[in-house]
Amino acid sequence: MNRRYLPVAVTAVLFVALFIAGSLQFSGFASARVILNLFTDNAFLAITALGMTFVILSGGIDLSVGAVLAFSSVLCATLVENYGWHPLQAFPVVLLLGAVFGTTMGVLIHTYKLQPFIVTLAGMFFARGLATVLSEQSIAIEHPFFDAINNFGFSLPGRGWLSSATLVLIAVFAFGTWLAHFTRLGGYIYAIGGNSQSAVLLGVPMGMTTIAIYTLSSTLAALAGIVYSFYTASGYALTGIGLELDAIAAVVIGGTLISGGYGYVLGTLLGVMTMGLIQTWISFHGGLSSWWTKIFIGGLVLSFMIFQRWIAVGLHTRLQQK
Amino acid sequence: MQLTHLTQHRLFLPLLALTIILLANVLFSPEFFHLEFKDGRLYGSLVDVLNRSAPTALLAIGMALVIATGGIDLSVGAVIAISGAICANLLNSGFDALPLVIFAGLAAGLAAGTINGGLVSIFGIQPIVATLVLMVAGRGIAQLINSGQIITFQHEGFAAIGVGTALGLPMPVIIAVAIFLLVQILMRFTALGLFVEATGCNPTASHYAGLNVKAIKFSVYGISGLCAALAGMIITADIQGADANNAGLWLELDAILAVVLGGASLAGGRFSLPLTMIGVLIIQTMSTTIIMSGIEPKYNLLIKSLVIIVVLLLQSPTFRQQIRQLFGAGKAMQGDRV
Amino acid sequence: MSERKTVLQLTGVCKRFKGVFAVNHVDLNVQEGEIHALLGENGAGKSTLIKVMTGVYSADSGRIELCGTAVSPQSPLDAQRHGISTVYQEVNLLPNLSVAHNLYLGREPRRFGCIQWRRLQKDAQALLRQFDLNIDVSESLSSYSIAIQQLVAIARAVDCSAKVLILDEPTASLDAKEVVVLFRILRSLRDKGVAILFVTHFLDQVYDLTDRITVLRNGEKVGTFNTAELPRPQLVAHMLGKELQSIEAEKTASRSDDTANTTLQVERLSTSQGLRDINFRAQAGDAVGLAGLLGSGRSEVCAALFGLAPLTEGQLSLRGNHYRPKSPADAIACGIALCPEDRKIEGIVHPLSVRENMILALQAKRGWWRPLPRHEQNQLAADATARLRIVCSDPEKPIGELSGGNQQKVILARWLMTHPNVLVLDEPTRGIDIGAHAEILQLIRQLCAEGMTLIVASSEIEELVAFSNKILVLRDKQLHTVIEADAISENAVLAAIAGSN
Fold first, then answer.
1. What is the pLDDT of residue B328?
2. Got the DSSP string for C296-362?
3. pLDDT at residue A72 is higher than 90
4. C343 and which of A255, C148, C209, C347 could share a cystine (Cβ 3.0–4.6 Å)?
5. Domain assignment of residue C178, yes or no
6. Beta-carbon separation of B306 and A108 below 8 A
7. C-chain residues within 8 Å CB-CB of B209?
8. B253 in contact with chain A, both atoms CB, cutoff 8 A
């Protein structure tokens, strides 16, 4: 097998192993319901993590996604509840603002050569601040459209429910796969992450690509915010705190190299699902408390990092032997 | 010439920012500068700012060193939670001799620093991910120690770390100042400071000059862990309880920000602890000012983020050049150094 | 020859750094369908000239003409658009992308907004077949050897309609078989009319492959010659700047070889960097010169002595004691110092100050807990500044603001402060002005007189002859000849470097 797919394959094997272990241990674990709930419950995280995948593939980082999600959910709620907009009017505005936000960060990073870490950190404060200014309280959304969408879905055998959030998730990942592997921009993103100096020499438009990456990440975070506002039927400025860490962890567990250049969109989806499965397993277990999730995920990130380091070193020596 | 020298001094921008914020207080809330001495300690907003700055200041001291070597330590917030949890549980367990509790807290910090330092210097893993591991898992470990509860305790001796008074000032201020002086002396009265800066500026040349670059990187993470553990004890003592979820949440970001506001580059190199302290004060004064001036606290984050962006832009050569071009090339030429 | 069309014409190109000429009024003419060698030792100005041609630097003066029209490339990408493509020793492609993607990045065939991977791979396969390369183009580039990566880079450059192909040390990391393949392809490109500028330090390859040779030295053009009409010793003489016949032997004080007084003994030294079986001995007051062309193993000997490359065989002893350094810190503790070749990356620590740079090694040797008091640092810095005549108004200035010569003196000062028994200098006079050059030679003599042992690697034979009392001539990472005492002359060294086995 191609060595490039090894990290993703490892994550896939891990996911399947966890699922089998859970199924043997608990009755009711091996069901369409559990799998589909993984999608529904983690849709917002997966959408955010997809944006993060592109950022990390290019060798950057985006700390602002959790705050952008919160801002987007609060803006949705405010527009719908306080201003009486129809959700379908509110969504384009929310997504557009998300895009503008990301574009601004991209411009700051590219034009002024500021480090992504610190720019997106400021972006995180700014988005969280905007959300707080909009409303400090949680706003419940009661709108027939929200109910309709939440009730929309397909019933599947095994008491499974293909929810609207899952459908959005699938659409977004289809888009992500197309972008990463079938467009020029996708190639440019991998190129910058592989070696930015070589990328310049090969004619990659650095400015355009950098700005596109952060615009995409923020737009997807805004979309995740919309999905989250459906999921909770509310908007709250303090949601999604620490979501950026979960997203980064999902990307790393999904086999994407944190220094950029290597990784797959599908890996990230597997990473999110693996994290979700750990959570499900812990809730089935009952005896283990929720904090074990964090410890497990931390441990997973650590082992994946050392694993990737090992692959990298292996590649290096293999090349030297040639 | 004199003026350009002044504006190019490293102290200029951070001090200017702090002065502007303080001046804003003179205009909008003069009571900000009111100080009062009663019951053996000073009271007033200024003292308050110092007191609240103490945990961030401690983190920023360690962070400044880590960043100077070209690294970053994201785990300090989680380390706060761990050291707090360990101390609180020890206090409730009967092993409540103060030196033992403090020693245990510090040992936890050192252990965390050792893990980070080991991953970075021995395994060669990027600092951002290496410390992300503990950032994520650390809070889980703290919750594990606390069994998911907020552990409260009654212990006057330990509580004094957070709420006590010494020399007329709150104890956290005294601790932060003492550690600042200790580390400053350690860095500037031994050759450590030079070694740390050399490592950050050019690790290869430093290795060639006979420095043990790995050991230096390793030790700054250790110091950072110790500082975080101390901050954790202050926060825990302050509320007389250990909250694994919220203790020190996002403080690592404030600490990183303070170091950057102090003029340090995240790429490593020169560091200055006094400037870092000014960065800490800028952050805390800004928060307090916003509250005092009657602006609703919900604008706090928004204003903070805008100030950060402005300071970052002012440090960017491209931005400075654009500003110069905007204000006429002739005048700018004098200030240019070739 | 002259009927051929000129593709690339450089006229009077100059480039200065901090007032020192790196390239001084250089003319260069590369014609259609020729392979043109650009030769010169390190610091001769080859790399600066290439960077001017590829738009990394802009020339201070002079003209670059491509097929008769003046161009001034602003960036490597701009140069490529004009038709000047460069393939470097370290391949400038993307290791994480597939071979096919590397070939067509930014110009992928698309339909309905989707990249047509199948067509792209077919095109890539077809393109590489022209280069006799039958590989799986869907594999990532990093899974192939450097040689194949280089061929891919050449294929991309040619396919992007390169008029001039610049190859910068393309063979440095290839083995003999791979070189044969590369050369076959270069010849076929030449026959198709591509103009190729070939930079290398392997003289055999120059004679094997190229049609004409341009030699640079100290930033100036020595001349352009037809390869077939230039005998090898003559070429080496041009590169090293001395005419073979006109050299008069200069006497160096001969010394008695006294085994008991040996400072450094090197026996059967082999290292992981490829050195094989090096033997020599040096005593107090000796200046041992390491001569040889670039890549002959000069720097590798320096690195081995300083603990930078693990020994695979043999042993070292220092004043009679077994010596096996594992790191520079070890070497320094044993009294060895190294002034490295790449001053910017391995030497100076910018933006630390001149004073801090000077005391760094001494401080490292003392340990962090025993800091040099500031007044002592100031005194040491002042003494060194005076002794080495460093031009520096303020020792608190960042070292990067000094000229190359003064930076080098600061690094020398750094090592002299540690009072080494053995001082290893790797290209101590590279890229520095004439004044500083003479002062450093003076210093070397003086240090020898004081009883220090110096090991000096240099491409400047003239200077090696001027101060050495023993010269080791290296070839192919092995010791070729040892020239001692009265036998030392530029003629002898040149002959040893150029001579055939």
1. 66
2. SSHHHHHHHHTTSS-EEEEEEEETTEEE--SSHHHHHHTTEEEE-S-IIIII--TTSBHHHHHHHHH
3. yes
4. C347
5. no
6. no
7. 328, 349, 360-361, 364, 414
8. yes
